[in-house]
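Dipeptidase
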Amino acid sequence: MGIKVSARAMAIHQRALTLDTHLDTPASLAIPGWSIEEGHDVHTDYTQVDLPRMIKGGLDGGYWAIYTAQGPLDTAGLHKARDFALMRGMAIREMVLKDPAHFAFAYNAADAAPIARSGKRVVFMSMENAYPLGEDTSLLSTFYGMGVRLVGFAHFQNNQFADSSTDPKGEKWGGLSPLGIQLLAEMNRLGIIPDGSHSSDKVLDDLLRLSKAPAILSHSGCKAVFDHPRNIDDDHLRALAAKGGVIQINSYGAYLKNSKVSPERAAALKALFANRGEARMSKEARAEFLAKRAEIDRLYPDSDRATFEDFRAQLLHALKVVGPDHVGIGMDWDGGGGVAGLEDASQLPEITEILVEAGYSEADIDKIWSGNVLRVMAAVEAEAKREQAGG
């Protein structure tokens, strides 16, 4: 169970334009028989965002991610990743085109508020891991044309553009690669927000030094609260804010605390996920998969998982260090996010309750929920217009 949401916090939440900067929900679109328009239960099918839960949780929308797992850096691997990313992007577009009564594309910062006022969900598109772009940065313009407005450079491993914060081999480039520097310049030219989440601290240093527009961390946390490579220290947090950037606090448990998972649970989940491939499963096979996962939860419960309090500590620390002009929300729903007490999108008003309890004003809360990232987006758009005009 989460915390009780006061009437005041609920009213503020309902008035706010609420955007999450990292929705991995497009992965659910590939599951046979799964529909974004139907209500689902996180405890039975493990998904966290759908239209009914967005409505219940007052989530107006966000940045829907084209996520591609890191693969080989050879020609075959790059082509496979490119094709996968294009198809995932098309799946997002099909979601909107099939239900224009409930979803609408947003391409510019100014698009979000009118869409939300109309009662529709805001669909910005993002790319998590630039790996599918191969070695031709001009391919970024294709994804921009599709609607992508935010791009992260790397994921769990180093790639052709940047070092990852979590590659077990350590750094390869010492930040952005020469190709990564070209990619950043192309982002500035087109009007795409540079995203440093998953990339190393040295990549963030390069973004802050080289980008002509602010950068964000679309789903990250604070090392001062939990020292994990995916989180950033307070000095980097202040440097990000000094350049106009924003950290979007995530709820991925492994980045919030050092949870102890029993060997039995770890082994059972490893065996189950070894041949997962949910997008390739029949409905019957997926039902069997979910039943096995539920049985693992019953036999070996995750009793030491991160909690609502761990998420609260991250959010309030970031706000203490850089203030409400430089903090936002990027929960990592459907990509591993969610903690005990804050399980899916239906519970988002609890975050507003945290902010109300901490004494933040409604204006501050509006910034945290969307104002800050939209300010960054507007600055990115302005830089693109300047460059394209030859300025």
